[in-house]
Amino acid sequence: MNAAAIQQYLDFAYILAVVLFILALKWLSSPVSARRGVLAGEVAAGLAVVATLCNPELVAYKWIVIALIIGAGIGIPLGMVKITAVPQRTALSHAFGALSAAMIGIAEYYVGLGHISRFEMGEIGMEVIIGSLTFTGSLIAAGKLQELLPQRPIVYKGQNIVSFSVFGAAIGLAAALVVHPEHAVLFPIMVIVALVFGMLLVTPIGGADMPTVISLLNSYAGFSAALLGFVLNSKVLIVAGALDGSSGFILSVIMCKAMNRSFSNVLFGAFGTIQTSVTETKERPVRSASAEEAAEILDAARKVVIVPGYGMAVAQAQHKLRELHDVLTKRGIDVSFAIHPVAGRMPGHMNVLLAEADVPYDRLIEMDEINPEFPRTDVVLVVGANDVVNPAARLDKNSPIAGMPILNASEAQTVMVIKRSMSPGFAGIDNELYYLDKTLMLFGDAKTFVTGIVKELNAVAAGS
Amino acid sequence: MPADFISNLYVFILAGFVGFGLIKRVSPLLHTPLMSLTNALDAIVVVAAIIITGRHETALSTTLGAIAVAASFSNMVGGFLITDRMIRMFKSGKAKKS
User: In this structure, which of A126, A403, A458, B6 has its CB flanked by the most CB atoms within 10 Å?
Assistant: First the structure.
């Protein structure tokens, strides 16, 4: 078989892979067919890799094999991390994806040096800039999520001007290279400037904005792969990159809408710094209750909605909440979980944690579906969530979170909030919900408190 | 403008629309596995990395290519593994009882 014939077979393998990619995403639409989707993706990836290894252009396999073994050695442990570490793992995988795309772009530049057209230089320049900034940006995001770096926004005066200048410099260098592709000395400088910009871009962003940032980085990683497809003339890369890029983009839009903020506000607004000065320090009276009282109130309810937030993830309270769900369900009480799109640190974070704790997914209800249910709900139990249930978003036009869609927990008959102390939430805004007559504050660690409630309920069950 | 660019642009735009249509229908329940799955699919970059490495043109291109192979293959392996683990955790109430 000659090389051209082999190339045709390879192209057919890639086309089949692309079809399977699309089916994989289609089957991900529901949890019932989702596993089939993963299988389709695996078959597609395996097919594409095996086909590529048969490419007659390959002359040396040694480094390929070594790199594949190293890749598997890194990938397997990263696939086995605890579910609680999924946000940082995801950020890290965006970094690897972007690193890979940037490395190939850089290699293409040096291999082609001397006969690169201006047009190709433009493609390579864009690809390498996006890949590089996504690499460092994702590393910073992963560091923040792993708490190696502070989660609060790190800001200084004139920050946006500095960041924009650095980005401008990267674009300027790329433009200079387009005019003179042979000026090889500019190329590494452009890469370094883009790497620095990635760090500057993510460092000022706070933990509460991570769902948007991680989605945006996902989108950048995808588009850098698609751009690489343009550079290499590889349609399979263009399709995979476009699918990944549009997925990240849609998720970012959903996250921004769920916070009623714009992209530029998330990227340059440094949320979570403005408030401390605004917060009133004066003590206001709240009603608090013990685990025993909370158990009694829950036991008397017919319909209970639990609102989890990032605090649940921090306290690792999801397994205890599942026990609470089980014991209440057994007593004939209707229990569901209200999921706000930006609860947690990445899109879908709460769903995955609760699914891992064995909460049936049909009990996890999205915001738009659960909101009409609140007036008919006897008890809302807020666990580690704050801003997503703050009525100020609807009522106070001057609030920093004004207009943000919230879970209308305040419409329920009784609201119980498990919280460590009265300190304000991530946005740093006082929450009117805590001062309502119908609200009971349950002070303590979420896991310990829920354990206490479950124990009380079990005691009641044993006694009756 | 090279002719390849135009046909690539067609593919990119059409794939983008397909992506929008598909992703919009993914249940918000599965947004975390969605991100890890698209990440694993995106790791198809490994095919380009394998070719750069295997052509063995310069020491630099082989080195950069090998780094790219390792980085993207780790995403591919890890991405599929974790996506499958997460998706297996999603059980409906009915499935649990049976």
Answer: A126
The Cα A8–Cα A3 span in angstroms is: 9
Domain layout of chain A by residue ranges: 1-59, 81-268, 291-463
**Residue B3 in contact with partner chain A when CB distance is under 8 A:** no
Set A387, A396, A430, A437: catalytic member = A387
- Judge: domain A291-463, CATH 3.40.50.2000: no
Residues 6+ apart with CB under 8 A from B87: A31, A34, A35, A38, B30, B33
Report the residue from A22, A67, A117 with minimal CB separation from B18: A22
Q: Return d(Cα A25, Cα A34) in angstroms, integer.
A: 8
Determine whether the interchain pair A93/B39 forms a contact, defined as Cβ–Cβ distance below 8 Å. yes
ipTM: 0.94
Per-residue pLDDT reduced to its tens digit, A145-155: 998 988 777 77
Nearest CB partner across the interface for B53, out of A63, A346, A362: A63
pLDDT tens-digit series, residues B26-76: 999 999 999 999 999 999 999 999 999 999 999 999 999 999 999 999 999
For the question of residue A387 being annotated catalytic, the response is yes
Q: What is the pTM of this model?
A: 0.91
Domain extent, residue B60, equals: 27-90
What secondary structure letter does DSSP report for A164? Answer: H
Give domain status of residue B21, yes or no.
no
Stretches in chain A below the pLDDT threshold 50:
272-281
